[in-house]
Amino acid sequence: MLAPPLTDAAKRHAELVQALRDHDYRYHVLDAPRISDRDYDALFEELGRLEAAHPGLVGPDSPTQRVGGQPREGFAKVRHPEQMGSLDNAYTTDEVREFDRRVREGLPAGSEVAYVVEPKIDGASVEITYRGGLFALASTRGDGLEGEDVTENVRTLRTLPLTIPFAEELVLRGEVHIRSKEFDEINEDRAAAGEPPLANPRNTAAGSLRLLDPKDTARRPLRIAIWQALGTEGHHGGHAETLDWLASLGLPTHGRHRVVGSLDDLLETLERFRTEREDLPFETDGAVVKVDSYLQQGILGRTSRFPRWAFAFKYGSERAVTRIVTIEVNVGRTGALTPVALLEPAGLGGTVVSRASLHNVDWVRERDVRVGDRVSIEKAGEIIPQVVAVHAELRDGSEKSWTMPDACPDCGTGVVRGDGEAATRCPNRRCPAQVKAAVHHFTRRKGMDVDHLGHYLVGALVDQGIVEDAADLYRLTRDQLVAIDRMAEKSADNVLASIEASRRGRTFARLLTALGLPLVGEVAAKAVADRYGDARALLDADPDRVGTDLEEIHGVGPKIAESVAAWVRDPDSRSLVERLLAAGVVAVQPKIEVAAAGPLSGQSVCVTGVLSRRREDIHADIRAAGGDVHDTVKKGTVYLLAGEKVGKSKLDAAKKHGTKVIDERALDSLLRGVNPGA
What we know:
alpha+beta, CATH 2.40.50.140, Helix Hairpins, disordered N terminus
């Protein structure tokens, strides 16, 4: 019997789902997008509206279902079908030769051996199961025998397809990771928000998988690379063939494996990879080498701890040993004092290093770091030099203990340390070091994007008293700039042109990012900017209402909301913004496009309570239908969309203003132009 023809809605739904899958694959796996982010969002929003109008079309494979899980109390245990074991390590060519000898002795005489060499991604290992072509389960490695169920968190990874063209059950293993560039951007945002940096991509990836709310995981730029499929020995002859097959299913693999046919080729490939790995987009601490043939893997077997047919070749972070000449303190934008070791110059990773981070005062105290100590240094993320070990056994008695100064080294103000804080701070907001850091932060690309204003020029302008805060940048003259040492007239003109471009050409969200409100990064800044529109509206808002209003916005938690409210109350912050406005800085947030005509034209809706869909998606649907979204129930609010756990104050306000209380089903009717009461 023939299936009935698809309805127009179902046909369009299938087209949108397939289009979004294709664009996800091209963007997140191939790094070759074909459409803009705006066009992608338009397709996603159309799919959301279609599913809202026709809930029966929603399936577990829909792109809208990636972030559907609710926060949980904890993680259930999952038993692995096969143990997730570890690999033996090798660090030298002699150890590689010894591995090759054991392999050849363990196989029938005269056997030809091929090895697969692939990058060892530094991330968090997970096991993933597809059933009937649908993503069904994900778990952490755990103790190797049993892991934790992180299905809803892994579902948020856009690199992982929710469906594959393979109907049998398929159990995969892969590495969840964050690319180096995206990790650096996270830390830039955290620094802008006054938050401590995350330690490294690996810990960040592992921690993101264990966040109790999948929506929090979805905010992290997590990716996954599949490196193994269980039970495919009957389908394929070896590991390399399986990796190619997985990629053909649309699954993300690292795509960088090589097959070598001799020991000499293996050693040459490992040595070449030592430098090539520096250009990889993800962190890696080595390479994995596997006997390619599944038949040979089975013959070789495993020890009680490791397979005999694979090992991890570790390069390790390059280290150097040098001596601490002295320890100085850097003062950052938020007043935090950071100890820095000045070193006898040492070669490290192709550069000469003479400075290295000492992390914080607790780290120095716990390790009894002294001036004159011999220390090991390496580059964190292979970029930032840091001290990683103190060689107390090499002391000769001339070393001197070091303590954090009682006064700021830049302005002389007494330092403070809050209860439970790791950082010691200078409380003087006029401290020259803080002013320099704040002004430089203001000019960053993600802020007001003022080119040609580097650390040297900002420092000179502050030291000479020309610039006391960011607002003074907009009063700079050509004469003031050319008077700076090494500043040519053409360079001065470039600086002034860039400053002028930022005066009217930046959004309110970027201004907020540039101002560096505590805890407020790019995402939160945009949420605040969307809510208030411009700086004047935020300054004029009732500070006691700001925190409450912002907490109702998805992605703005209570700490961020209170931080913004405190900033609005702060006289110094208000004064700086007033000076920026007086200098002609115009930063307005573009309004979200609203349909000129639609079922909700001229009507407003306040959305509250626990709902089945993301609040911002509901807001987008209301605006697309021509409606307006109110954060609170007030005079003129036509509808109150009430989910579960609605506050009494909202219901009382609705009664007071004659606002009609509706549920999600009624809203769906309104969006379709149907009167829910008809």
